[in-house]
């Protein structure tokens, strides 16, 4: 059982994620808190990674403060702009291949300021 900084329960093995305000499962929340992703800690970062992928390169987009549905839609548009596959995992958009410059340009066209991170 995990508790957040204010002492409210945020996860229970019996019901899964719970609302810290009303302490009900998120699907049954009645307190009216927004059910979107927490705000990002900083700017959107676009980086390239190969660790744990058998040497294959993946472009990562981190720090987007969007709801899960909006994040999935943005991921689809970025994959289409790069002409490759990918996925959305834990609030991070993964695009297969080294497409950092294309992703930064596509995010700028969407009105989202992004910075390259890493080498």
Describe the main β-sheet briefly.
5 strands, mixed
CA-atom Rg in angstroms: 17 Å
Strands, total number: 8
Number of domains: 2
| CATH first level of the largest domain | Alpha Beta
Summarize it.
This protein has 119 residues and is an alpha+beta fold. It has 2 domains: 1-34, no CATH class; 44-116, SUI1-like domain (Translation Initiation Factor Eif1). 21% of the residues lie in helices and 26% in strands.
Overview of the molecule:
This protein is α+β, with helices and mostly antiparallel strands and 119 residues long. The protein has 2 domains: 34 residues, no CATH class; 73 residues, Translation Initiation Factor Eif1 (2-Layer Sandwich). The protein is built from 2 helices and 8 strands, in the order βββββαββαβ. It has a 5-stranded mixed beta sheet with strand order 6-7-5-4-8, covered by helices on one side. A 3-stranded antiparallel beta sheet has the order 1-2-3, with no helix packed on it. α1 packs across α2. The longest helix is centred in the middle third of the chain and has 15 residues. The radius of gyration is 17 Å and the shape is elongated. The relative contact order is 0.16. About 4% of the residues have low confidence.
């Amino acid at each position: 059982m995990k508790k957040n900084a204010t002492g409210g329960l945020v996860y229970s093995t019996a019901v899964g994620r719970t609302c810290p305000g009303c302490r009900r499962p998120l699907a049954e929340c009645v307190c009216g808190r927004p059910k979107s992703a927490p705000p990002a800690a900083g700017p959107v970062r676009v980086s390239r990674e190969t660790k744990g992928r058998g040497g294959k390169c993946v472009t990562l987009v981190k720090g987007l403060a969007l709801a899960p549905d909006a994040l999935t839609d943005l991921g689809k548009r970025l994959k289409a702009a790069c002409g490759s596959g990918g996925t959305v995992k834990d609030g991070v958009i993964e695009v297969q291949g080294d497409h950092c410059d294309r992703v930064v340009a596509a995010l700028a066209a969407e009105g989202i300021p992004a910075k390259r991170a890493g080498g």
